[in-house]
Amino acid sequence: MVASLVPPRQFRDATFDSYRPDPAYPSQQEAKLKLAAFAGPAAAPAKGGLFRKAKKVAPAKPGVYLDGGFGVGKTHLLAAVYHAMPARQKYFGSFIEYTALVGALGYQKTVDLFRGSQLLCIDEFELDDPGDTMVMTRLLGELVAGGTRLAATSNTPPNALGEGRFAAQDFLREIQAMADAFHTIRIDGTDYRQRAVDGEAPALDAAGYERAIAEAAISGVASDDPFGGLVAHLAKVHPSRYIRLIEGVDAIGLRDVEQLDDQSAALRLVAFIDRAYDAQIPIRATGRALSDVFGQEMLGGGYRKKYLRAVSRLIALTTS
């Protein structure tokens, strides 16, 4: 689990220079410059002109927090921070991977593991329950006190984490303490995958599905499972182990997709989709369009942004 705390395959070579900000959204260029400054002088991107100088912005706080919608390049920039910062001991993982590590090793062993590290990158920061709130605020507080710097991304500003999901007012002190460690950087823009969330992930007919899976199996390994079987299996595996389910898989086949009405099952599917997207594994499916797998009630609830991100990624994976 610890060895896997590095940027996902698609961001192994991510740099600030390879990030392409959209001119229509100046906050993207501003975020790039601020994060490069946070990573250190050597990380400064190319100036792009003889006399142009990038703004030198050195956040005084020990952490930077990139807040913005899905598909605007947050993970790319986070990976660029990881690669650019000259740290001997640094880690990059999703929020769920860090909480899973605490669950597997225990709190104190996790603290001991990360103690002395120069950088901790946390992608898709989420606080879905009070337990996670307490664990992560304590962990980050101890690490910051020891000199660790933090870089995180999320769809929610740090002082609003947990909002709409649980009784956040009961944990305001803990949430605020965590927020105080971060310099928040807002980044705007449209999904770089250029696919509207009200678009549709194509569903294949039986013949088209069989053909797609057979073609994928010629050059690699293709899975072929009923959608209900996958959903049931995910309930038996800890989310930190989802990455193991797709190791060596080059294409994912799902038959008879149905809309989910259980939020726990839906959140597990989101975690699985995140791992598949990190690995850039195409998905082929029959039945209901995967972009419709989360009902309107779910899309209007406290996990709205998480589900919309998953829909965006599903559209990308089913059309890749």
Structure description:
The chain is built from twelve helices and eight strands. The chain has helices at about 25-40, 75-85, 95-105, 105-115, 130-145, 170-180, 205-220, 225-235, 240-245, 265-280, 295-300, 305-320, and strands at about 65-70, 90-95, 120-125, 150-155, 180-185, 225, 250-255, 285. It has a five-stranded parallel sheet, with helices on both faces. It has a three-stranded parallel sheet with strand order 6-7-8. β3 (about 120-125), α5 (about 130-145) and β4 (about 150-155) form a beta-alpha-beta unit.
Proportion of helical residues: 40-55%
Global structural class: alpha/beta
Poorly predicted regions: 161-172
User: For the residues shown, what is the average pLDDT?
Assistant: 83
Main traits of this protein?
5-stranded parallel beta sheet; 320 residues; single chain; 12 helices; 3-stranded parallel beta sheet; alpha/beta; 13% strand; globular
Summarize the topology.
Elements: H1 26-39, E1 63-68, H2 74-84, E2 90-94, H3 95-105, H4 107-114, E3 119-123, H5 130-145, E4 149-154, H6 172-179, E5 182-187, H7 206-219, E6 225-226, H8 227-234, H9 242-245, E7 252-257, H10 263-278, E8 283-287, H11 296-299, H12 304-318
Parallel strand pairs: 1-4, 1-5, 2-3, 3-4, 6-7, 7-8
Summarize the structure.
The chain has 320 residues and is α/β, with parallel strands linked by helices. The chain has twelve helices and eight strands. It is 40% helix and 13% strand.
